[in-house]
Design a protein that fits this description.
six-stranded mixed sheet; alpha+beta; 2 domains
Length: 236
C-alpha cells in the first residue's frame, strides 16, 4: 500500500520530495550552483586572451573553460552535469546561459542561470614591447637588385606572420631601407632564428651571424642582440 506524498510548501502531490519540498519549491530556497565573478582580457593589438594569467589565441573554448572554472556547485549535488551556452551581445559583451543537472537526495534536479560579462581591452606584454621598439634580433636582407630585395622582404613578412601565432614577439618591429639592402628589427630572437633557418633553405645560403652584448639579465646572464645577414644567391 503506497501513500501519497505532498510538498510541505505548495501542497503538490509528488513522489520526488527533497527535504519535504517538491523540486520547484526546493529550488526557490536552494541553489544548485553559484557563479563567481571573473575577468577576461583581450589584447587590442594581437587579439589574444589572458585567462588565469596566461595569454592564448582567442576562441570560445577558452572562454567556456573560464566560465566553467567559476561555477561553484552546491555540496549536496551528486553526479552533476554542466552545460554552458555563450551568447554574444556585442563584440566584447557576452551572456552565458548555464544549466546544471544533478541529484539531491536521489531526486534529479535542474537549474538554469544566466550571467553577463565583458572582455576588457588591454595590451599584452609582448605588444607593449613591440610598440616601444623592443628588439632581440636584426635580420639583414641582401640581394643583387632592389626588386629581388623587395621580394625577399615579402617572403620574410609572410614567414613572420605565421610565426606570430606561436610567439607574439616574433614580429617585424621596424624596417630600414639602405643602399646595401633592407634591415629588419625583430622582437623575438627565437622567432628570428626560426625564420632565418627557413630563408636559408629557400635561398640556398647560410646566414652570417654576429652578436652584440646589450646588457645583463636579472640572474646575471649576459644578454645579446643577434644580427643575421641573408644574402640571396650566395653559395653554401
Amino acid at each position: 500500500m503506497s501513500f501519497e506524498r505532498f510538498c510541505a510548501k505548495c501542497g503538490k502531490a509528488t513522489e520526488d520530495l527533497v527535504g519535504g519540498l517538491c523540486s520547484n519549491c526546493y529550488l526557490k530556497k536552494h541553489s544548485l550552483f553559484e557563479v563567481k565573478d571573473f575577468n577576461i582580457e583581450r589584447c587590442v593589438k594581437c587579439g589574444k586572451l589572458r585567462i588565469k594569467g596566461r595569454w592564448g589565441s582567442y576562441n570560445n573554448e577558452l572562454i567556456n573553460g573560464e566560465v566553467l572554472a567559476k561555477i561553484k556547485l552546491g555540496p549536496d549535488l551528486l553526479q552533476p552535469k554542466i552545460f554552458v551556452e555563450l551568447i554574444p551581445m556585442t563584440k566584447i559583451d557576452f551572456s552565458a546561459k548555464i544549466k546544471v543537472m544533478g541529484f539531491v537526495n536521489e531526486v534529479l534536479l535542474e537549474q538554469t542561470k544566466s550571467t553577463e560579462f565583458s572582455i576588457n581591452k588591454v595590451s599584452c606584454d609582448s605588444c607593449m614591447k613591440l610598440v616601444s621598439n623592443y628588439r632581440e634580433a636584426i635580420i639583414q636582407l641582401r640581394a643583387p637588385s632592389k626588386s629581388e630585395t623587395s621580394a625577399m622582404l615579402e617572403v620574410t613578412k609572410n614567414l613572420f606572420f605565421l610565426e606570430q601565432s606561436k610567439d607574439s614577439l616574433a614580429a617585424i618591429v621596424k624596417t630600414f631601407q639602405g643602399k646595401a639592402g633592407i634591415d629588419l628589427w625583430i622582437g623575438s630572437r627565437k622567432g628570428a632564428n626560426r625564420v632565418v633557418r627557413k630563408l636559408e633553405k629557400l635561398y640556398k645560403t647560410n646566414a652570417v651571424i654576429s652578436k652584440k652584448l646589450i646588457g645583463v639579465a636579472d640572474g646575471g646572464a649576459e644578454k645579446f642582440r643577434v644580427t643575421y645577414c641573408i644574402k640571396s644567391g650566395a653559395s653554401k
